[in-house]
Amino acid sequence: MYGWNGKFLRVNLKKGKAVATEYSAITARNFLGGRGFAAKILWEELKPGIDPLSPDNKLIFAAGPLTGFALPSSGKLVVAAKSPLTGGYGDGNIGSHAAVQIRKAGYDAVILEKKADKPIVLLVQDEIVEFLDAKDLWGLNSFETEKRLRSVYGSSAGILCIGQGGENLVKFANIVCQEGRAGGRPGIGAVMGSKNVKAVVFMGSNELSAADPKKMKELGADAYREVLTKPNYAFWKRQGTMMTIEWSQENSVLPTFNYQEGVFDKADAIGGFTMEKLKVANRGCPHCNMTCGNVVKGSDRKESELDYENVAMLGSNIGLGNLRQVAALNRAADEFGLDTISLGNVIGFAMEASEKGLIEEKIKWGKFKATKALIEDIAFRRGFGDVLAEGVRYVAEKIGGDASRWAMHVKGLEISAYDCHAAPAMALAFATSSVGAHHKDAWVISWEVNFGRKKYSEKKVDKVIEFQRIRGGVFESLTVCRLPWIELGFELEWYSRFLHAATGFEITWDELNVIADRIFTLIRAFWVREYGKNWSREMDMPPARWFEEPLTKGPLKGAKLDRVKYDVLLNRYYRKRGWDERGIPTKRTLKKLGLEDVAKKLKKRVKIYE
Prior knowledge:
Structural class: alpha+beta
């Protein structure tokens, strides 16, 4: 095969053995790579109902056929496992040298199985795999861990590690690299910690094989030049995703005080223009010429890489209007290896619970020092931090009463930084995301604001599915970054041309959409299988707060979602997906997508219709 390496590396941590295995060209063509490979492996190889933090879970690092080539924003890697936070499929992507190096080492995916007897660093150098003692690294934060490993293996090595959050099995611990790049918000870092793996180091010496190397080189050069010509490029380089703070404030979608409001009185103090005044550096992923990592010095005088999501969740959502202090909280989260979105969400929930007198702990809105101490308590599972480390769904159930109605999650994954009191399409995107409430699969909020906030039309359902195909299906499996397309307008046709030059296959966008539907439906089948008879369409419902508690401030004062109209949207979504009224794929849909074997296995867990 061209483009793909055609090999997976299977690592048995218990036995300390690693074996390279080949996979078929049919698998490559049908699932592409990245998320597609991860979903297929987890479906086929995990027994239903396993404990995500047991040795029976598998941790997957998966790249795609475009990963590592000299193409815009191709330095991406998917990390995946059964999620300890949600109990369903979980993944995330990381921009990292590890993405390039895993491919140069000769693999398209590395699969970690079982559990090491003691903390280790897994070193993969082409065909050589070593299991190194990590006793001197266990207990260190992610920044210090990578610093020590990089002093040994050099600046080009691909290093992924966990902080104390992953070691202590915090349910929303993630995997970290390059002092601020992170991924795996559904607790993939906790899975890594449960396997006693402190870090993985990838080093490769091979060149990637393209079907048409000359064409690939020409396309890459042309594409990099094309990115530079886009009208929004200069402003993007200045602010990256931080420009979204002002946009969200203007459009009343900035999460504030645990999503009670969509506007924040101190939004300007944490926005993109304030960030520009504090900015000291800019960082990005390998092969990227539209770097989005804005580095500022926090109130602790340490550098912190900021983007919209972490500033909104650790700023407005917890009532903190000081960007340097937000930066310090973000730095602490990255060092501990905690997902900033879930962290800001669970802290905001705790602050509201405290304000309502539902917990003994006094956790006030916008208090920096107390919040920073709480973050440390979560990472080390101390006191009330031990409860919060389980995620907002668990905390709400523990508190009881009506707390679950304002616990901002879907399927156990905390909602990322867009309030949807007046955004039904974005609410649908959150509710039907493949990993729980995440914007990554279908960021439709910008389109929706232009199209019309109050509409509950079929066109909104079509747009959610379109974005899920492009973002959550194709980009997550190729595996490349979505930002050149969604932020700068880099044309989608580039990617089918890249794929042809890399693999030799002429795959149209119509075919890519079918592949995306196959992957998305397989992931839905995984969720249904794991929940079994407990699965229902309620799993695809946004939080009750958005339906029951209207906004009290801003230009959209009084707005809230309409439950009846949302239900109609969800029904339309199911029909277009080929799923039944419970949100379960039908036999006909599974057969159409080449997933007949999935239907046979799924019907052992739930009733599935023709």
